[in-house]
Design a protein that fits this description.
This protein is α+β, with helices and mostly antiparallel strands. Helix content is about 25%, strand content about 35%. The protein folds into 3 domains: about 140 residues, no CATH class; about 60 residues; about 100 residues, no CATH class. Keywords: Bacterial flagellum, Cell projection, Cilium, Flagellum, Periplasm, Signal.
Amino acid sequence: MTLASRLIVGLCAFALALTGAMPARASVRIKDIAGLQGVRDNQLVGYGLVIGLQGTGDSVRNSPFTGQALQSMLDRLGVNVRNSALRTRNVAAVIVTADLPAFAGRGSRIDVSVASMGDATSLLGGTLVVTSLLAADGQTYALAQGRLNVSGFSAQGEAERLTQGVTTAARIPGGALVERQIPDQLATLHVLSLELRNPDFVTAERVAGAINAFTRDRYKSTVAFALDHRTISLTRPPNMSTARFIAEIERLELEPDSPARVVVDERTGTVVIGRDVKISTVAVTHGNLTVRVTETPMVSQPEPLSNGQTVVVPRTQIEAQQGNGRLAIINGANLHTLVRGLNQIGLKPAGIIAILQAIKTAGALQADLVVQ
């Protein structure tokens, strides 16, 4: 092998070593981190009745609104029950909610969620009667109806009851038909703006730079300008539809930036450390102290013919055991060094949480610590 060949092999090996040592930077599409301002979902809500329950519905005495709704529904169907006492337990009053997507046309189907609002014990096997879904303007935008899908179940006997999941909430996939179309949102937009889902000044500038690099090469002009840490203003090129322009922009890829942050969930023992989290040089030791108190009372019997009494004599035994605490120096130049330093101490999640909080108090954690 010649000297040049050896040099090339050595450089390749060095490059592979650097690639394995450094974490790979992930590029994402603009459509995954930003959305068009003004184009959003609309929330719908309605009040309805679920029928066909096996005696697990609302009681009319405890839920009078169920009886009133049932009477109104039967009146619309031509059945007069005004002077009758309704005692059915096969009906339940529910609240129906749904999200109306942007650009949803008439006749398209959307999913709905159903939740009981009375004293019904289960919605299993029920069917939702046609229900109007209203928006914030009070107009009906969809009609919901269909058989409920309940994920939980409940079984009860005389001495025991088994319940899994929630039996008073359900979903109906594709259970609502859109009856009214929202006005064209793109046609009413005078200024096109992208909104970042995670606001950040660096990411906003990178998005504007990626868009301008694309438009300079394709349209010989710059169209993007970052207004703040959330909004990027766009100028649509002439003789191009808004839909095509947004489609071309959403395919562009870039590397978003994020603040250094450590998220700690003390209930589940979950610790999530961001990529850019760093720790100044700090020495950490962690040890456990276990104290065990054992009560073993003893019975003292009197001597025969001594006219004494039997008494209980307390007996307490206390043991203290302290685990070995290892001292480790952590200098977190990057995420890999930080994780490796914490693993050297051999900690459990609870110990890692305590150490991270102590390092933050000492001022050595160069990141935001979020405790949930």
